[in-house]
């Protein structure tokens, strides 16, 4: 029972870390970044490079954040900016970008499954049961990410401006806010967060060019049911991620794999606002 | 009567050449398509002789993909439904064939049964997804999500099917039809030509215009009483049928079915083909699907990763730089050269009076039967009470103005009347029928017409087409022809004539002036033959002469046609001129309800409006 | 079973006056003899290349997953094929003709495979297909092979029971792979209770179906059987159940690549130390996983550590030919090498490349190669020597036992 609860909260933490970047981009840009999975993959390969050069494994996370943000900034300028007024087309263009990134990584790093060094290994004793230490650390980091973003939104000028753009972009523009800059910054941050999540995932999983694809769909659905709120995203991760763990444990893992997408689709149909307060 | 001034120059230019009637234009189009189709069929007929066996083999599949791309184009390019899930319908058709032939065997009866079964299942799944996605209040993006989920679920179902579905290995080597390769080539090629031709007829027909109007402004369609959700659902089910047929043929020809045929990768590939070929062109997506699939069969073997890289880069470039796709970009110079020789002529239509369906009530001023009755209506957002205990009724032949300062809840009240899910409590009845919790399209069917505050029109359509869309609920548009006549009820006809729209039938709505758009929306709403008309600041942003015209029209509607009009207005001057009764809203409550003189001279109204000069109407817009 | 789609006439050159073995519209290098042969074939109405001119080559098609899931292993398969062809050509070819290779990407999936097989059979007009593929790709290719009347030697281990008169298999099936691991676990390690874990696809399910029956038939007990979707790699719920079930041994058959690797890593990460037989892991993957893989038992027909002169010569020849670019040979690539030699033997014995004659000889010829003697003599499948290996702490695999001449059992009873 304890391990089930731990599974649920750590799964929710992982889902939160994976989807929060997508949420930020969706909140400000009102577009779905289908290259989110590709940014995740870039983070994975960043930690692969870190392993390759025998650097400290904890270095992978900051490096992934930076490389993702830089790449995201370039993408925003070249591909996303011309599509501000065409949000559906932005979905398609970012999906095209995902294809391109996968192929480039395949050409550069090979198609094979590769591994990164894990910063910590083994299990630890928690609440009377043995549990994977890394998953617990992951949960802590996910919570820290959430708090940091919330603090940045509440406490900094960029955060204030970003919230203004989220609420009403036209009005914000009218008040002299450079919403292009806000979009640019948030896309870059969102890409960096995706990349960071990729780097965080790799010690649990492995690295391959299409590692981002399965995560993209879950992240996408979670953001859809969360609207633009961090709190509802956390709630959605906990509820839907928890449902996934429960279905996998007591039902079949095959059904568990479909739980998030199917439940999210039903939630959206019954209550279009999802987990956000209407 | 003064005419609407300031017509845009462009519209005037369009008018110089003699215009053409819709049916003439339609016949010309059909002639062109017929010639193209015959040419394509001839090419397909000689294909097996002219091409190598390998090319024939690849093209058979490319043709089938092309047919799916065409249906996706109708869904996405014309109607605005972006579906990633056409592959799921394709795989349903394919497995209907595979499963039947493997587990039951091949007889004419099972072959037919599998075909019918596969098509039926695909249509059902399509309708189910449509029901999920096109329900009331579901966001527009939902259909893209739902179709993605459909693919994921479909593939997983096939994987979990064990021996029955062959799991990841799929099924192959079953007995299949005794048709030669050339035969399949002709079947697939003819099917593609047929789908393109039928699609072309559909999108050029009156029903096709309706699809475009849904893409352009679905909200407006709903308030005309058009059940757009059901139309989209039927369209999705229809496209599912075509995709399932293609899947059935694919399985029958290749003798192979596998789960990855239903994956969202293939679904996305279809979307990419349509985008590259040019959305909303039919021919573009068909050509793109056939060409890209054919070329990639030749190239992907020698450069597997680079090929996908090239496709990805080209796709991004096209989306960003040429959103209309490669097809139109390549075709437009040719078309321009053609145009220079024979300039396009605008398409207009003939206005005809409609048969009056509702026997007009006694045109007595304010003396008709109860048209609208509102009892104890309230609307709350959380703890915020926007409307509280609103009760009033109005009869046919009454023109009731709703006035009150900003934030009094006037527009909210209009929303609560025209959309059953808006109000928190209370009852709204139109001619004695409660609206319950119905969506706007069903409220409209009770006889409610709503004109929005800012002109809510179809920018991409012509005036004539817009008026026809407004009539679509009353006169079912045809799927295979264009009607020359637009039959308008007298009230709408009057607006069209007095505001000068009658001379602008061939003009694109985006070229109309602001006043023209306001008048057009009013005419469209009247074309739906409402008994109760809700008008939200119909004169906002209009010039003085324009306002006078609208005022006269309104008075005429009420007096001669016995309509009940609810008018939201800031301009008290205008209100006083035309109203038969005024209701004053303040902070969500009715504070006054009486005839014009009583209200205008009331002390209360002056208090409410203190600090708000009477000409607030000028700034609204 | 092969389908009964159409007669030979419509399968051959479609409405074309060209001899079928030539690419349409190309007369390049066409000798009179070939023209005669082609015309003859056309007269018979059969698409059967029967005669070879002196300067003609024999071409072998290799449809393989250069992209997609199999792209990791595909390069080593191609290298094995190139080595075999180079060796045979250096010895004078087959019946005096040089061998050539045509490699085509099948994208590791059904749709790509149909295109790749079509391209090889109908565009390149290869004389035989010899390759490893995913099961989906193999199944997709079989109808094309039947239509083109082309011999197909399948060189990948698989879940078994794929039968066609044109198909021969020189790799193992569950009947051959499972017994060494289970016997060893039960007899040498005293395991009684087993937990089975797989990816939800044909190979994973097929393998574990057989494993379950085999364990039950030998008095063992199954305490759990769990599957994860093929692309899923989070094994948390499965591991929770595994921990609760306390089995003596875990046997897994997952999809290759990420699912396989993550299972091992998460298993060790969760601190579960249980006897672990991995039916889907190869040497390269074991090496890449590193210390976490130590103690895993593998059962294969080929390991690089097999101690015989043929294997040493094989690896040395690969090294010489590809140098630094050499891909480590494995249980999916070595059978490709054997397959090409088996085809050579069959052609020489038949004295012709006529597919029907070659197909008749294929079960009769044998090749003594790195894996030992291979002969596809039992219902189009081959009895093989199976090896049980244990992964060491440094990631290498130590062969701890060999099981000679393990029969594939009844795979295709209808094919004699």
Q: Which helices and strands appear, and what pairs or packs with what?
A:
The complex is a heterotrimer of chains A (278), B (621) and C (416).
Chain A: H1 2-29, H2 36-52, H3 60-80, H4 87-109, E1 123-126, E2 129-132, H5 133-155, H6 157-167, H7 169-174, H8 179-201, H9 212-226, H10 230-250, H11 253-270
Antiparallel strand pairs in A: 1-2
Helix pairs in contact in A: 1-5, 1-8, 1-9, 1-10, 2-3, 2-4, 2-8, 2-9, 3-8, 5-6, 6-8, 9-10, 9-11, 10-11
Chain B: H1 9-14, H2 22-50, H3 53-78, H4 86-103, H5 108-133, H6 142-160, H7 162-165, E1 171-172, H8 181-204, H9 206-216, H10 218-223, H11 228-254, E2 256-257, H12 264-277, H13 283-299, H14 304-321, H15 326-341, E3 350-353, E4 370-381, E5 384-395, E6 399-403, H16 410-418, E7 425-430, E8 433-434, H17 440-445, E9 448-451, H18 463-470, E10 485-488, H19 490-498, H20 514-527, E11 532-536, H21 544-561, E12 564-568, H22 572-578, E13 581-586, E14 589-594, H23 596-600, H24 603-608
Helix pairs in contact in B: 2-8, 3-8, 3-11, 3-12, 3-13, 4-5, 4-11, 5-6, 5-11, 8-9, 8-11, 9-18, 12-13, 18-20, 19-20, 19-21
Chain C: H1 8-11, H2 32-44, E1 58-64, H3 74-90, E2 99-105, H4 110-123, E3 128-131, H5 135-148, E4 152-154, E5 167-169, H6 174-188, E6 193-199, H7 202-217, E7 221-228, H8 236-245, E8 249-253, H9 258-269, E9 275-278, H10 283-289, E10 296-300, H11 309-322, H12 334-350, H13 355-361, E11 367-369, E12 372-374, E13 384-391, E14 397-406
Parallel strand pairs in C: 1-2, 1-3, 3-4, 4-5, 6-7, 6-8, 8-9, 9-10
Antiparallel strand pairs in C: 10-13, 11-12, 13-14
Helix pairs in contact in C: 3-12, 4-5, 6-7, 12-13
Could you characterize the architecture of this molecule?
The complex is a heterotrimer of chains A (278), B (621) and C (416). In chain A, 53% of the residues are buried. Helices cover 74% and strands 3% of the residues of chain A. The mean pLDDT of chain A is 88. Chain A is built from 11 helices and 2 strands; from the N terminus they run ααααββααααααα. Chain A is an all-alpha fold and 278 residues long. A two-stranded antiparallel sheet of chain A has the order 1-2. Residues 1-17, 359-366 and 613-621 of chain B have low confidence and may be disordered. Chain B contains 24 helices and 14 strands. In chain B, strands 9-11-12-6-13-14 form a 6-stranded mixed β-sheet, with helices on both faces. Chain B is elongated and about 90 Å long. In chain B, a hairpin with a 2-residue loop joins β4 (370-381) and β5 (384-395). With 621 residues, chain B is an alpha/beta fold. Chain C has 416 residues and is α/β, with parallel strands linked by helices. Chain C contains 13 helices and 14 strands. Chain C has helices at 8-11, 32-44, 74-90, 110-123, 135-148, 174-188, 202-217, 236-245, 258-269, 283-289, 309-322, 334-350, 355-361, and strands spanning 58-64, 99-105, 128-131, 152-154, 167-169, 193-199, 221-228, 249-253, 275-278, 296-300, 367-369, 372-374, 384-391, 397-406. In chain C, α3 (74-90) packs parallel to α12 (334-350), α6 crosses α7 (202-217) and α12 (334-350) packs across α13 (355-361). Chains in contact: A-B, A-C, B-C. Chains B and C meet through α3, α6, β1, β2 and α14 of B and α4, α5 and α7 of C.
